[in-house]
């Protein structure tokens, strides 16, 4: 399964649609701060949560599951993600998730922390502390294994992020 993980689009609805069309994912996870009307988001299978800049009535947190992979999705502003990922890891474990997807810091992260895979796709509109805007694509097919790749908004691979991960171990 191919999953597009995106965050912090901050009103860039046209760019978001371009990326969704290009990636052609089976599912899209938007980690908040879309800052548009909900009806401007692409009409595709999507899990979307509210960021600190959003006004639409969508969940603050959500759980989504495909196969053996349970995803905890949140924006991250309530979990101190700009300074530490520990509260995010603990919340994902508490939710029974193997993969935590979040945004807020506008900085791309993909790392294994114990049994939890933590993914921040960065921002497609305004990166912070990273030279280019980014999004992530997670591909899974084999049980407990994921390939995560990062891309610029033009679709160019970002080679210093991502990799192959196993969760729950």
UniProtKB/TrEMBL annotation:
Its EC number is 3.1.4.-. It is an enzyme of class 3 (hydrolase). The keyword Metal-binding applies. Residues 1-141 form the Calcineurin-like phosphoesterase domain. Keywords: Metal-binding. It comes from the Bacteria. Pfam families: Metallophos_2. InterPro entries: Calcineurin-like_PHP_lpxH, Metallo-depent_PP-like, MPP_YfcE, Phosphodiesterase_MJ0936/Vps29. Belongs to the metallophosphoesterase superfamily. YfcE family. This is Phosphoesterase. It comes from Salinithrix halophila.
């Amino acid at each position: 399964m191919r999953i597009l993980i995106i965050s912090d689009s901050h009103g860039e609805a046209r760019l978001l649609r371009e990326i969704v069309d290009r990636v052609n994912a089976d599912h899209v996870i938007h980690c908040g701060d879309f800052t548009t009307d909900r009806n401007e988001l692409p009409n595709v299978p999507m899990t979307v949560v509210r960021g600190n800049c959003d006004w639409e009535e969508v969940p603050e947190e959500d759980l989504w599951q495909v196969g053996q992979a349970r995803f905890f999705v949140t924006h991250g502003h309530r979990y101190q993600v700009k300074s530490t990922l520990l509260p995010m890891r603990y919340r994902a474990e508490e939710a029974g998730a193997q993969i935590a997807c979040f945004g807020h810091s506008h900085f791309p992260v993909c790392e294994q922390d114990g049994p939890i895979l933590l993914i921040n796709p960065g921002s497609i509109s305004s990166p912070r502390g990273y030279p280019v805007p980014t999004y992530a694509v997670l591909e899974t097919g084999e049980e407990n294994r994921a390939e995560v790749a990062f891309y610029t908004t033009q679709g160019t691979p970002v080679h210093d992020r991502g990799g192959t991960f196993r969760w729950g171990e």
